[in-house]
Design goal:
heterotrimer, A mainly alpha (252), B mainly alpha (434), C alpha/beta (287), A: 252 residues, mainly alpha, Methane Monooxygenase Hydroxylase, Chain G, domain 1, 79% helix, globular, disordered N terminus, C: alpha/beta, Rossmann fold, four-stranded antiparallel β-sheet, PhoU-like_sf (chain A), phosphate transport (chain A), PhoU_dom (chain A), PhoU (chain A), transport (chain A)
Chain lengths: 252, 434, 287
């Protein structure tokens, strides 16, 4: 399919309908999801900061803000129904609507993960007897995992803005680093008895680490949907290395 | 517009519309009024025309007869008593009538007066009496009160067309004759009876003996043959040109020619008929056959054009439907297109026929103007047609032909009406467009 | 690129690009124009109206028991192509068809071939319901009668009934067969036209926007009917309604300015068309 005419258009996939209102509806749906994504990034960073610094009010704030994302996801669902009912999308439009619907789910669940971290933080604060809980290596490891997950998530949200295959590819490529950071943290927590953590605390912290890793996984899932929209191929459950290889081969 | 001092608010479109509304309605009213006037005017003229013709013509449907007691003497009619038709036909019936008349007016002795008395009786009266006797030979030897056909001058006098008060020199009937008629009228021997002669006889020099049967039959034969010739040829040509012929320069040329032929003056067709049919092919002149051939030429363009329009108006979806189930082009045309186009084709043909019925000029060229007394019995008998007959009578000097002309026009119009009625009925029958 | 396609084939089951390259007679068309079991095969068909080329080198197969839909913007040549398939274009002056169109290995543009029996084999249903202005019975009986398909009245009655049944119209009209076909509703008229077409037992039925004059309910009935007819006939349908093409057809062909741009499984065309023009058209981005 090297034929130039066969190549997909370069511009905005969602624009250019004869019915301009259709463009607007799709843009609105995407805007809701982008807004959700931004909230999730803020929430995650705030939650991780609360965890690391043991900042209880910060954790409460995160929990307070969590319903906003849920409400937005309801809005997104409604918009999806509306577009399907009114426009009967086909081809790329159908893929966009389906993908955005799934992406909304992924983002919403990523928001849940941020809230979970905040809840775990509060739990830790209750168990905590005195002083600093996290030793330096743990802190660094959390920070690294947080950076990785947030970076991937931010990238995935950016990929959604233009259904950018290149960005999605980078997310896939980042996955090993995410998993490495997660397993590093797990190892540290496994040995955490030496640092004076009771098993209960270690398990709580492990939950937080899992949540952060899942945020990264949600980013990957979003990237899969971006590929689905842009290339029309469902790449879920596909061997990642071969997929990355093929996409690179294709020039992304 | 650019003047900043101009502060008047922009006029709304609806204001402009309202302002012009009155003018627009006035224009519409004017147009309607004009239309109504035109229609009324047309109707008035039609009514006037008909009224004039009917008023002038209705008296021709009655004819004046004089009742005389005629002694059908066997000695005069059938001296041998054989009742042989040849003998009966040869007898001098005029003598019988004159004798009867003389008995009515025994005081008239003078030769000249006698001749004048005899002139009150139509010269055709003996023939009518002969027919009567030959139809019923038992009458011979009896004396019958018979109604004898009066001369046209007497007819005119009785019908009031001759003014009895005018000076004697100004009228065709002398005072003496008026006196005789007055006497006969007083005796109840003069009456107007239904004019059967008008419908059963051919034309004649004598108005009272002139009928339109010859012209009517001539017209009928001519039209029937014209229809038989022009309808199939015309419809066939239209079908071919419209549905089958390739669209190229030749068919374009034919189309232009057909359209032009429809506009050719009819006298030209007469000349053509004279030159080609009579001159070249030797078709007998003055016959319905040659008239029909000329009329066919003249009607063909009308029928072809009307048929093509009718065929064109059949929706193409019907053709597609028929072709789509595998009908051949000919089946498509004859099973589906032609039946749908038939009402239109018939209308066009009837218009062509009506035109042919009223046509005079080309027939003059092919000898239809000849004075033909006999009623034609076929397509090759010499004949004349209604409009030519009307033309001939209108040209005759006798007063009696004036009313006959109008009467013939009434008959012609009735003929047209019947034709149009037939057309409407035919249309109704075929027009099943469900 | 090839690797990509092959990798993805494992899940989509699409035709591999290697096959594509070999069997595609017209280089311009995306997708596989051939089917395993073709009823009609068209190769490099050009249609000219005078000097104007209406169809440019179109190759396309119509499979047995499949509904092939043809979509495209107005004037794209889809109807013209459809009308080539039973030589309805013969009736148009200045229309010239080159290339080969075969019905069961018989070239229908063979000089020796008579278009009249061809049209009995390849029936056609038109955009506007066009029953003959005759009775319902006569509408259906006309085709069999002119072709002499039945020997007597009883057989004809039976054929009329079975055709009307197949067209799903029998129960609605059985009591009024002698009434005019034009008195039926639009949807019924169209089904009458379908009954008239199948009465001459065609192999292929061509439908030229059969529902464009009908309301949605009547359209749904016709679509259901098309799906049923697929069991016995090959159907090629031209439609302006993309949803209709998506609903009734197994394969879809997209025409654009006389070119056949893309052919493929309807599912694939409507979820993931390969050509940009196809995508733009079916998503409503032009036309």
């Amino acid at each position: 399919m090297s034929d130039t005419a066969v190549d997909k258009p370069a511009g905005d996939l969602m624009a250019g309908h004869t019915v301009r209102r259709y463009d607007q509806e799709l843009a609105k749906l995407r805007a809701i999801i982008l807004q959700m994504g931004e909230h999730v990034i803020e929430q995650t960073q705030a939650a991780v900061a609360a965890l690391i610094q043991g900042d209880e009010p910060q954790a409460y704030r995160v929990l307070d803000r969590e319903p906003q994302i849920d409400y937005l996801s309801l809005d997104a669902d409604e918009e999806v129904f509306r577009v399907i009912a009114r426009r009967q999308p086909t081809a790329v439009d159908l893929r966009i609507v389906l993908a955005l619907s799934k992406i909304a789910g992924e983002v919403e669940r990523a928001g849940d993960k941020a809230a979970r971290i905040a809840r775990q933080t509060l739990e830790l604060r209750q168990q905590e007897q005195d002083g600093e809980l996290l030793v330096e290596p743990l802190r660094v490891a959390f920070q690294t995992l947080d950076d990785k997950a947030c970076c991937m998530f931010e990238r995935s949200v950016r990929a959604v803005t233009s259904f950018d295959v290149t960005q999605a590819l980078v997310i896939f490529e980042d996955e090993p680093a995410l998993y490495a950071a997660a397993s590093n943290l797990r190892d540290l927590l496994g040995e955490s008895g030496d640092d004076g953590l009771v098993p209960r605390q270690a398990i709580t912290l492990f939950h937080c680490a899992q949540a952060l890793k899942h945020i990264g996984t949600h980013a990957s899932n979003i990237a899969e949907q971006v590929i689905y929209v842009a290339l029309g191929q469902d790449v879920r459950y596909r061997n990642r290395e071969i997929l990355i290889e093929t996409l690179r081969h294709r020039g992304y | 517009m650019n003047n900043p001092a101009d502060t008047t608010p922009p006029r709304r479109a609806i204001d402009i519309v309202n302002a012009s509304l009155k003018r627009r309605y006035a224009r519409e009213r004017r147009f309607r009024w004009l239309g109504a006037t035109a229609v009324t005017l047309g109707m008035v003229f039609v009514v006037l025309l008909f009224a004039d013709i009917i008023l002038k013509g209705y008296t021709a449907f009655q004819q004046t007869y004089i009742q005389l007691p005629i002694e059908l003497a066997a000695a005069t009619i059938d001296p041998d008593g054989t009742r042989d038709p040849a003998t009966l036909a040869r007898a001098d019936y005029m003598k019988l009538i004159r004798e009867a008349l003389r008995e009515q007016f025994p005081e008239v002795r003078d030769r000249r007066d006698r001749r004048r008395l005899n002139s009150m009786i139509s010269v055709g009266a003996p023939d009518l009496l002969r027919e009567r006797v030959m139809a019923d030979p038992a009458l011979i030897g009896t004396t019958q009160e018979l109604w004898i056909l009066a001369d046209d001058d007497i007819d005119m006098l009785v019908k009031g067309y001759i003014d009895r008060n005018a000076p004697e020199s100004d009228r065709r009937v002398s005072d003496q004759m008026i006196g005789w008629i007055n006497r006969l009228e007083a005796e109840g021997r003069v009456a107007k009876r239904f004019n059967t002669i008008f419908f059963t006889h051919g034309t004649s020099r004598e108005p009272e003996l002139a009928g339109i049967a010859g012209a009517l039959m001539g017209s009928f034969y001519t039209l029937a043959l014209t229809f038989l010739l022009s309808f199939p040829i015309g419809v066939g040509a239209a079908l071919y040109l419209e549905e089958f012929a390739p669209k190229n320069r030749w068919t374009d040329l034919i189309e232009v020619n057909v359209n032009n032929l429809a506009a050719v003056p009819s006298i030209v067709f007469g000349l053509l008929g004279l030159a080609v049919f009579i001159g070249f092919f030797g078709v007998p002149r003055s016959t319905p056959l040659v008239a029909a051939l000329v009329m066919t030429l003249m009607t063909l363009p009308t029928i072809i054009i009307a048929s093509r329009v009718a065929l064109k108006s059949v929706p193409p979806s019907i053709r597609e439907a028929a072709l789509g189930v595998g009908a051949s082009p000919l089946q498509t045309q004859f099973h589906h297109v032609l039946p749908l186009a038939l009402p239109g084709i018939l209308t066009g043909s009837i218009i062509g026929m009506a035109r042919a019925l009223g046509e005079t000029a080309p027939l003059l060229m092919i000898g239809m103007i000849a004075f033909i007394v006999d009623i034609p019995k076929g397509f090759t008998d010499a004949a004349t047609v209604l409009p030519v007959q009307i033309f001939l009578w209108a040209d005759s000097p006798e007063r009696g032909f004036v009313e006959r002309t109008s009467a013939a026009i009434i008959v012609l119009l009735a003929f047209l009406f019947v034709m149009n009625l037939a057309a409407v009925l035919l249309r109704r029958r075929f027009e099943r467009r469900w | 690129m090839n690797t990509m396609v092959e990798v993805m084939d494992k899940t989509t089951g699409a035709i591999s690009s290697a096959d594509l390259a070999q069997d595609r007679p017209s280089a311009a068309t995306v997708g596989d124009v051939t089917v395993a079991d073709p009823r009609m095969t068209c190769r490099d068909v050009d249609v000219w109206y005078g000097a104007k080329q209406a169809i440019k080198g179109v190759s396309l197969d119509i499979g047995k028991n499949e509904v092939l839909s043809m979509i495209g913007p107005s004037g794209c040549g889809k109807s013209t192509f459809l009308r080539c398939l039973n030589r309805m274009n013969d009736t148009i002056d200045g229309c010239r068809v080159t290339g080969s169109i075969k019905l069961d290995e018989q070239d229908i543009y063979d000089k020796a071939l008579d278009p009249v029996p061809l049209r009995a084999q390849v029936g056609m249903v038109f955009q506007k319901p066009n029953p003959f202005p005759k009775s319902i019975y006569e509408n259906v009986a006309y085709g069999p009668r002119i072709h002499g398909l039945t020997n007597n009245k009883a057989e004809l009655d039976e054929l009329v009934e079975s055709s009307l049944r197949k067209a799903g119209l029998w129960n609605e009209v059985k009591d009024r067969l002698d009434q005019p076909g034009t008195g039926l509703s639009g949807g019924q008229q169209q089904r009458l036209c379908i009954a008239r077409t199948i009465a001459v037992s065609p192999e292929v039925i061509l439908m030229d926007e059969p529902c464009s004059a009908l309301d949605p309910i009547a359209t749904a009935i016709i679509e259901e009917l098309i799906d049923e007819l697929r069991a016995n006939y090959s159907i090629a349908i031209v439609t302006h309604s993309m949803q209709q093409a998506a609903r009734v057809s197994q394969r879809t062909a997209y025409f654009h300015l006389g070119d056949l741009i893309e052919v493929g499984e309807t599912n694939q065309i409507f979820t993931n068309p390969q050509h940009r023009l196809t995508e733009d058209y079916i998503t409503g981005r032009f036309g």
